[in-house]
Amino acid sequence: MTGGTGRLGRRRLLGAASLAGGGLVAGAAxxxxxxxxxxxxxxxxxxSIPFDGEHQxxxxxxPAAHGRFTAFDLEPKAGRAEVTALLKAWTDAARRLTAGAPxxxxxxxxxxxxxxxxxxxxxxxxxxxxGAPVPAELEPLPAFPxxxxxxxxxxxxxxxxxxxxxxxxxxxxxxxxxxxxxGTARPRWQMTGFSTADGTxxxxxxxxxxxxxxxxxxxxxPGFGRKxxxxxxxxxxxxxxxxxxxxxxLLDDWERLPRHRREQIIGRxxxxxxxxxxxxxxxxxxxxxxxxxxxxxxxASAHVRQSSPLSNSGATLLRKGLSYFDxxxxxxxxxxxxxxxxxxxxxxxxxxxxxQRLARxxxxxxxxxxxxxxxxxxxxxxxxxxxxxQDLMEGR
Amino acid sequence: MTGGTGRLGRRRLLGAASLAGGGLVAGAAxxxxxxxxxxxxxxxxxxSIPFDGEHQxxxxxxPAAHGRFTAFDLEPKAGRAEVTALLKAWTDAARRLTAGAPxxxxxxxxxxxxxxxxxxxxxxxxxxxxGAPVPAELEPLPAFPxxxxxxxxxxxxxxxxxxxxxxxxxxxxxxxxxxxxxGTARPRWQMTGFSTADGTxxxxxxxxxxxxxxxxxxxxxPGFGRKxxxxxxxxxxxxxxxxxxxxxxLLDDWERLPRHRREQIIGRxxxxxxxxxxxxxxxxxxxxxxxxxxxxxxxASAHVRQSSPLSNSGATLLRKGLSYFDxxxxxxxxxxxxxxxxxxxxxxxxxxxxxQRLARxxxxxxxxxxxxxxxxxxxxxxxxxxxxxQDLMEGR
Lengths: 396, 396
Hints:
2 copies of one chain form a homodimer.
Chain A: H1 7-16, H2 38-41, H3 57-60, E1 66-74, H4 80-99, E2 117-122, H5 124-129, E3 158-164, H6 167-181, E4 185-194, H7 224-228, E5 240-249, H8 251-256, H9 259-266, H10 303-306, E6 318-319, E7 322-328, E8 334-344, H11 351-361, E9 368-378, H12 390-393
Antiparallel strand pairs in A: 1-3, 1-4, 2-3, 5-8, 5-9, 6-8, 7-8
Helix pairs in contact in A: 4-6
Domain Dyp-type peroxidase C-terminal (chains A, B): 203-382
Family (chains A, B): Belongs to the DyP-type peroxidase family.
Keywords (chains A, B): Heme, Iron, Metal-binding, Oxidoreductase, Peroxidase, Signal
């Protein structure tokens, strides 16, 4: 993947090195870099994904290189009027930031929006606070076997997913949103995830080394809209339910396994992501295929089989996971894994159904721990001039 | 910064959206993104900075979009032989990873090296462990006024700075290094930083909104080499001393200040980074310039004045700071700020001299807290076939 560097490339490289000036010291290590520079390619940080649309933009946007998930709790005195003002303020800020426009009172960064998305969801506790009916889809997720949930890093009145292809842009947007919410909502917890900046369209890998999202449904799949987007009430029509799980990976154990064992546990090849039943990454796994010795090509307890819609009455999740790596735990193990984020029309037919199977029968579950959990109702997207959740706040 | 999207761009955008398929749903918000895509520009993730060279590559490399600083402690039983084996293993892994070559036993990510650098330093405690003399430059940093240092997140036998333009590449490299060190060194603490992916060569901004590094020395400045690189002993000739400080920013207080007050405290404009004495970002601050009313253009206690080499007997630091944002503290304040990383020939004439002044007299010091601290001797770079620190291990 290392391309050549022509005369122009070298010159631009020196420009990019203005702080450290790597190219100016004869023989310095920094001077001989080869391949395209960020300066040559940096235009993509100017890319903008429109905020307004039928669905909130974070649901169908391409995988982003960075994301933060933040849960906010309402201040004790905040009621319907304050929540309405908050949603208006967040909508205005998000609409500006995603377009690369300045936010009044904010010191602009000078960076482009870098495909920024801001997706807002409501916890059941917010609906109760404003006296709105709580949809059955928003009933608390059940406890699953092996769960190790930390309640301080779970749930929340509001859940906000901010993604972009630039980590600074994500951090800056969160500061703007937190400032806009001050007095009405305060951050309850925040988690930071990343993927790769390698925007080739390949499925991003997770920290286990595996492409993560190979089996994701595609919008042209039959029933995609019905399985991912809610039908009602009016404020949720075109919305979706977001399940968040912080899933720590026991990487020290995982990395000690030989590659063939890791592939058996997943049910896919580590290099290409192709199912062990053959084909390429995009080939549907053949759960009945047998090896020459009569054994199943995809083992009975493999993750691909246990999580398949075929094993779960058609249950379908649109996953938007991000890796996290928050340093090391007191026992020396990496505090790292997956910020699992999945959208679905009804979690009872989606995440809950799949996870009830995985927690019992999936070989992979011995190498992960679910450490936090949250569920939010993500209302439909905005038309210009309206604000997120306006139908809810107006009783529709 | 939002460019148009031609026919090819649109098609590639759909390719990049394969996971979520944003472009395939008529009217979906994700479909109308404009501007260059990462897929069009992703070549820079293939860029490679050579590991071998006179200096370790992280010192003079251009500012990276991502970095992790990790301190390792030696296992109790590790002595000179084990440290030698560790340095050989780390050198081999770093040399391969920075070139985008596979590491034996590792599952490759398929991503390019993305300008990966791996820079290794030795704490005084490592030198004592192997019975080597401790250079006077490595004597512990003094305590400074206002310090709030957490010893559990300070110091360490080894300090490793890993930077790249891809967050996943950084995380993966750290996993490889940790695995290669297992049994000899264990992570003591790790901190994760970011800058921007906007590789235009502009000085990256910090979370206070200010370009950070405007006054950095440049390799063509008189005396640069003498001020940044150590003269000896042999294992340090061409090496440098690395000061690490985690500097939390009191962002809630900072953001409540009006812009003109923030600019007075820094001594530079927030938008352009130009000194308040006039000119552009690269203009040297004129510390004697007066406003029409006779007041100093750059106030007596402004950060630019207090940190200037003119105020500190010429003290010069090569700074490579990264922002961090680790969520929120129990009191609701953002746990965010700067991972301050500075290279110099002698910390006593560099960081220590400057910080003794800043902690007392710099207006900015009221808006920051130094929460962790470390000092490492970064040996000179490698020639091919040799390993990092070889001169030290061979008694030179």
